[in-house]
Amino acid sequence: MAIIDIIREDIVKVPLSSTTKNEVIKELILMLKNAGKIKDVDSAYAAILKREAQGSTGLEKGVAVPHAKSTQVENLTIAIGVSYEGIDFESLDGKPANLFFLLLAPPDQSGPHIEALAEIARLVRSSGFCEMLLRAKDAKEAICIIRGE
What we know:
- The chain is of the alpha/beta class.
- It has helices spanning 3-6, 21-34, 41-53, 110-124, 127-135, 139-147; strands spanning 12-13, 63-64, 67-69, 77-87, 97-105.
- 43% of the residues lie in helices and 18% in strands.
- Strands 1, 2, 3, 4 and 5 form a 5-stranded mixed sheet that branches.
- Helix 2 (21-34) runs antiparallel to helix 3 and helix 5 (127-135) packs antiparallel against helix 6.
């Protein structure tokens, strides 16, 4: 299952209103709850924080991919957010993150989770893609960029 097949406007937020790592995680999870994608916000939030405690999912070049396995989802779920200002996400390069891809997958579904992480890695390898996504004015434009339209 490709990311482009599961993204919709109600799970993409441009710009995010959060200013801290934990706020970003909560904002993205709340978006998934409002979209009917997760059952319980607190449990999903705890799963992401537990994974973050093992090591930050803040990568390099302004990208963060908080992810976890959770019984709160039935299928792979993603929420995407863009912060124009950047947020300290304890990233590997020490720089703020601007692009957030939050993934939740059921504990018994490793394949789609790993495939989605690999797909995100491929997308963000392109600095042009990241720059375009950071310039998106709203969720609709961000989705068009992700889909390559």
